[in-house]
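Case study: XdhC family protein.
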Amino acid sequence: MENLDVTVLRALRDWRQAGKRAMLATVVRTWGSSPRPIGSIMALAEDGSVVGSVSGGCIEDDLVYRHTQAYAGKGEPGHQIPSGPPSFVKYGVTADEAHRFGLPCGGTLELLLEYDPDPDTLAALVRALEAGRLMRRSVRLDDGQVSLSEAQAPEELSLRDNLLVNIFGPEYRMLLIGAGQLTEYLATMALFSGFAVTVCDPREEYRGAWSVAGAKLVSDMPDDLVLAFKPDRRSCVVALTHDPKLDDLALLEALKTDAFYVGAIGSRRNNEARHQRMIEHFGMTAADLQRLRGPIGVYIGSKTPPEIAVSVMAEILAAKNGVTLPRDMEVAQAKNAQSILPNQAEAGIVCSVARS
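Here is what the predicted structure looks like once written out:
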């Protein structure tokens, strides 16, 4: 499953190139709780086809009904065929509307509706995104004129000075080292979370059992592939083989990049041994290894491969979304705390006996 924004823009491009009338809806403001974040987009074609989402579904239903009726010439007074400059619409202003449209209590959102976006500009934007470029799309509100430029870093949607600016990026990428069972679960979750997944394993016996459609499987040596993969700010690298010969060099190369997440599976002891190897044999310092995550995942008491994959995916998504998790959710921290408790209890018993 690819990046949702790219999917929406590609569908909108195809509709417009085919001569269909269509609309692009963007969440530009929210108040209180909102089911979709600012910057979320949805495309709606004249026949009622929808790609993307601006809410939990009820607002989409209302937009589809109003605009397909208008396109069919059956619109209510004041709801003729939509055209012209972009316009704003609010949902959830009153408690009744919030209930009607399924918004959380007190939730309100505002959409910008763009009518019949230019197909050539859409095609240029999609080409840039497919080429892995981060793009800025600016819309003049008085006439709907769109301009494109390459962005250097992700930015929040802005709406000021008669201009809407939204940043669209290429899909997030995940590189997994090792094609074992855990990798299958993690790759599946990553695909459904919008990542493009590449799995690297030079071991033929593991590649032969691979069964996740949609994930690219390659046989290169992991460190060579990291160099070719060129991880950027929208990439993560996860080593899952437990084999230092495969994991260590790949991790060292990944740490030289802008990848937002670099980590490896393993116990606390294995993680300490990995750090020691990298310091002794590869000249790394403790500061160099601060970005290397391990043991990876959030602590949920996971034991089985699917549970461990949930744990790891949760940590990756938190890092992607800029969320700093509490330290007691780290696997190492939680297990260290658990190992202390029995010792404390034992010490309490000993002291009690001694006092008696």
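For the exam, be able to explain this: Residues 58 and 109 are 13 Å apart (CA to CA).
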